[in-house]
Structure formats: structure tokens, C-alpha cells
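ESCALATION

Customer reports they have been waiting on this structure for their group meeting. Please prioritize. Original submission:
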Amino acid sequence: MRIHVLQLIVGDKLISDSFNSFGLHLLSSGNVVDASDILMLNRHNVEYVDILPRSSEAATEQEGSIEQHATDEQLHSFNLAISSIKDLFQVASNSESIDPEFIESAFTPLIESFEDEKDVVSLLLSLNSKEEYAYQHSVQVGMLSYYMAKWLNKSEKEARYIGKAGYLHDIGKCKVEEAILQKPGKLTSDEYNEIKKHTIYGYDIIRNSLHEDALALVALQHHERLDGTGYPLRKKHTEIHSYSLIVAIADVYSAMICNRVYQEKRDLLAVLKELHRLSFGQLDPNITQVFIRNMIPNFIGKSILKRRPRWHHHHDESF
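Update from on-call: job pushed to the front of the queue and completed.
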């Protein structure tokens, strides 16, 4: 059967020779692939291979293991972080600032629990709750921002700071009416303009709470795009803070893998392809490529969801 390379699992047997686009012979028919073979095919940009049909039980067993990856400690930390960000949203909705120690106590245990995690995709999917999207999204973006900073060779201190920026990026949504955030149908122009204000609300809350310009700018700029098509200020290229460029990618990725009121879960391969497309003009191309390169090994052997995505009417992956 013919499958995409990202659907390969260790133990699959090739039934035809594999070549790259220049005609270089990579693997022979009859080869039983291991993890290094799959990575090598990825590096050579091979998309499809022919394999011997799997025994359904073996394939199901390997693909199904994805849901069991998170440890009890990580699940506890993740649920605690969701509860904490929910509390942060609640406090901010009734005030103009949040106690910095409250923010630190909510964020630090999360990062300490996940800082050694290697299989990011399994972790995110196994922690993908169908409830309380906004809070789960904030936690995922914080985690992904931290991982990306590490992949970009940032120091542990700076990576944690960028992770915190991701964790707080959507705090301004606490000032937007819940009915608008949860509306399943098409938004009116006024409603969409109100949602876009969450970036400004978030900037003000973080400035008032932490007096940290970089963290506040991430809240303000995570929907800005390199080509100037973003919001709220239509910033371009070097006008956008480097941390905002990182968090923007985490924001888009998390939005595409999560269940939303207006969109079904995207399949894993489509998410990477869409990120790659967005790196031509909207998302930072270098950071996006680092993200994709580090995520691809995590996709090996993961089950691919078959449902077709239902795109949001604004064609933006997140608010």
C-alpha cells in the first residue's frame, strides 16, 4: 500500500525501491524501516513510499500508544496549569492587573514538569481535552513557545521567559464577551473587530501587572504577520518583536490541532503543510523551519486523523 512518509512506523516493509528527487537510491525493496530510515527519507524530501500491508492489530497497537504517553505527573501539572490560567483570566476580567507572584506560581510548575519532554506531539495530543479550549490553548502555546526557544538554542532562562509570554499571550480575551468568543457561526464585522482588541487588552493587563515590555508586546503582536496582513497595528518584519514571531507559530499550531467551536481537529500532516505555506510571507520562515524540523521526528508512527477540516470563516487559524 502507498502511504505518506509521516505515516510510516518502525517495522514497515518497503515493497519498492525509494529514490529522492535527484534519482539517488535511498532504500531497497524489502527493507524493514527503522527510525533512522524514516528520518533519512524525510531529510531527502521523499513524500510517499510503498509498503507491505500491515497486520491491523500491530498497526493499531503502535499508533494507539500515542494516547498513553503523558505521565500522571505531567497530566496533573497540565490540569493544574489549565485551572491556574482560568483563575488568571477570571482575576484579570475584574481588574486591570494580576499579582506577579500569582502568575509565577501558575506558570513555573508547568514548565518544570515538561522541560525534559522529548515527544512533543504525543504529549500535546494526549493532553488534548475537548473542554475549556481557551485555557488549554494558553497552556499549549506556553509549552510550545518554550520548546521552540530551546530548539533555537536560547538559554534556559530566556526559554522560560518566552514560554511565559506564550502562556499569557491570550490573557486579553478575558475582556471580550464570552458569547462572541464562543459564537459558532459567522462573526459580524463588529464582533470580529471586538475579538481583535484582545491583543490590546492583553498588552495593557501585562504592562499593568508585570511592567515587562517584551511580555506585553507578545500579547499585542502575536497576530501580526510579516507581510503586514495581521493585527492590530499591521506591523511588518523587523517591526515585530522576535518573541512574538515565536509565539505566533505556537499559537497557529495549537489552534490547528485543537477542537474548536468552529473547526474539527486538523490531521497532523495537514498542520505541518499549512505552517510551511504560512512561512512564505506570514510566519517567520527560519523559525517555522526549525519548528517543523524538530516536530517531524515526533510525527513518526502517529495515527493520522481522516476528517476534513472545516475552516474558520476568517481563514485565520486562531483569533
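Sent to customer with the following note: The first strand starts at residue 2 and ends at 4.
Escalation resolved.
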